[in-house]
Amino acid sequence: MPNDRSIHYEQKDQSYFEKRGLRKYAGVWSLWALGVGAVISGHYSGWNLGLSIGGWGGMFIATIVIALMYLGLTFCIAEMSPALPHTGAAYSFARTSMGPWGGFITGLCENVEYVLTPSVIVFFIGTYLTSIFGTPVEFQPVWWIIGYIIFVSLNVWGVELSFKVTLGVTLSALTVLMVFWFSAFPKIDFTAWAMNIGQGGELLEGGGGPFLPMGISGVLAALPFAVWLFLAIEQLPLAAEESVDPKKDMPKGIILGMITLIISAFMILFLNPSLPGVGSYALGQSGDPLLDGFEAIFGSHIAKVLAFIAIIGLISSFHTIIFAQGRQIYSLSRAGYFPTFLSLTHSKRQTPHVAMAAGALTGLIIMIVLFYGRGAEKGSTIIGGTLLNMAVFGAMCSYIAQAISFILLRRNHAHIERPYRSPMGKTGAWITILIALVTIYYQLSDNTYRIGVLGVATWFALGIAYFAFVGRHKLILSAEEEFALEAKKNTANR
Q: Which sequence ranges are marked TM in the entry (predicted)?
């Protein structure tokens, strides 16, 4: 890895940063909503596919393992974010601990996740709307465009409105889940339905199947699907510079968010497969598990109403990840890693409108090219599968980088003030690294994931080429860069 002598900074006056100002607004509950809202769509669908390869017991243990990984990660972030309260988040942590190249590559990992995840979510929103309104499949891109226009506009309008919408849709999505929990409890039969998968993966009429029908291998294979129950909670520190008091509120927001998600994850895992007429076997092949559960409780005669309800979770995650997408691109651009025009903020709203528009446009163009270039059916499969897997792979790589950053910051920068300290310490970081590596291994055992990895490799190659030939010669002393250089200087003087 090149040393800092290969890095060159451009001098910018105060007007550069005045055109890139952000407004403080977020408190604890705004931050909580940002973290929970980004994840909540994964409690509506996606996680359930792990039932088909691990059975209920395999998925249950996989969820415990992945929850442990995310606890390790979020405790690391809860310590690093108030100590380095910058919009760059993962890039900022890695920049201070591993230098400019480490910071850029970590930022690139998150960039894959935050550009592609909203694309996949709006694809699923379009699929629901196509079913509800009976529009032809070829009309789907119109739903995508409408979705992006509405929610990018809400995020551009102002941080106050953005966080109010975030809180509103997150509470709505959780309310839907709570209605499901309390409606499901009187009707469940766990043994007959949740345990209806046999050792070979076959359907067991009447249930009573083994706890681990596919053994330990089923637990490991289910790990990537358990990720959906927590994926994107790590985006919360991207709001650090818009937090009123990040040193106090950031740790509270992310820990409260993680507690909320753990409760919700195990509730949905227990109740959804236990409903009569649903069961683990059918749910493991379903594209709409929560919708299947509601239909089992209330009947299919109100299917379209239930479909509207199911969209709430998708909207919550779509809105909040667009917020994160904008801040992630903005931070790398403000520091010169990406072209600097991307970090301009709105003159009145003080929101990173250029970054959000650029990220949305990139995701939308990729979707439309795949949809029409490969044909509606095959293009839809790639959008719903390969792009999603690219986002997950990028996220896993960023988790490893953030855990390494935590370890290096503890070792090399012990002098940095830490308003909050992780109760899991370096052990939590090592647990995160280990579980993330195992999860990546089992992602790669799936052909669809392997194709996604090739896509990420191409993304990385283009990004690294740009930074090697252009970006590293034009870095700017942003908040993240100044902090990193000062921390390095203080360490050298000790």
A: 25-44, 56-78, 114-135, 141-158, 165-185, 211-233, 254-271, 302-324, 354-375, 387-409, 429-445, 451-469
